[in-house]
Design a protein that fits this description.
264 residues; two-stranded antiparallel ribbon
């Protein structure tokens, strides 16, 4: 199957776009085969296909699909940018080390509405991968540029340009208990076989880890007698977690509203 002017395989739309294009092509071929199929009782599809071939029926088709019912005016900020939405929820439990700033995700529970999943095994894998990728975004991955705060890096140079200096998630960062559930009984009538996009929607659900980290820091600060609001920027690196856990070690250097810049 080839489509000469196709959209890229991106934006979690491949199944919707190309699946619907394939369905369009199949329906064209089916319509051509219907007169032959109605005249005889074929025992198999292969037998029907051979009969159509013998009758010189065209068994190829060009399928095409464009997403209907969408349109957005970027000038006015009004319109319908997407035909449907993928909904989900997540909650996480983390444990932080208040002396080092390290953390572990003890458990993560993710729930997603994917309509009628085309392949639950693949979809669950997509959800797990997107969630761990999002975990890296909210708690591990930090860009360090050569600027006044990092004079040891040449000006304008990106120091974190590879996995040797850029902390991406590893197997050790996967939640100890990782549960994924798909909502059942809610088909999406606007997509192929009542399914929904799954590639990118779970990504932001990893924000549950970020807010769990902040909740743990709040508990640590309360033990030290502090219950005021405090900033915690993304990503929640060990340096930022450690400096947010106020105690006798940080007090000489940081106040209640200390806001760490990028890690050193």
């Amino acid at each position: 199957m080839q489509v000469p002017n196709a959209s890229p395989t991106a934006a979690s739309a491949s199944s919707d776009m190309y699946g619907a294009a394939v369905l369009d092509a199949c329906e064209q071929i089916k319509a051509r085969m219907e007169p032959i199929a109605s005249q005889h009782n074929f025992s198999s599809f292969a037998e029907l296909a051979f009969a159509c071939y013998a009758q010189r029926i065209d068994l190829s088709a060009h399928g095409f699909f464009i997403t209907p019912e969408i349109g957005f005016d970027w000038t006015t900020g009004k319109g319908i940018p997407f035909r449907y939405f993928t909904y989900g929820a997540a909650f996480s439990e983390v444990e932080i080390d208040t002396l080092t700033g390290d953390f572990h995700t003890r458990s993560a529970n993710v729930f997603l509405d994917l309509g009628h999943s085309l392949n639950p095994a693949i979809d669950v894998g997509q959800i797990e991968g997107a969630f761990v990728q999002g975990l890296g975004w909210v708690a591990l991955e930090e860009l360090k540029w050569g600027d006044p705060a990092h004079r040891w890096i040449p000006p304008g140079t990106l120091y974190t340009a590879g996995p040797g200096s850029y902390k991406i998630p590893s197997i050790n960062d996967v939640p100890f208990k990782f549960n994924v559930s798909l909502l059942k009984g809610h088909p999406n009538v606007k997509a192929l076989h009542s399914s929904k996009a799954v590639g990118e929607p779970p990504f932001f659900l990893a924000s549950a880890v970020f807010f769990a980290i902040k909740d743990a820091i709040i508990a640590a600060r309360k033990e030290a007698g502090h219950d005021d609001w405090f900033p915690l920027d993304n990503p929640a690196t060990p340096e930022r977690i450690r400096m947010a856990c106020l105690d006798e070690f940080t007090t000489p250097f940081a106040g209640l509203d200390f806001r760490p810049k990028l890690s050193i």
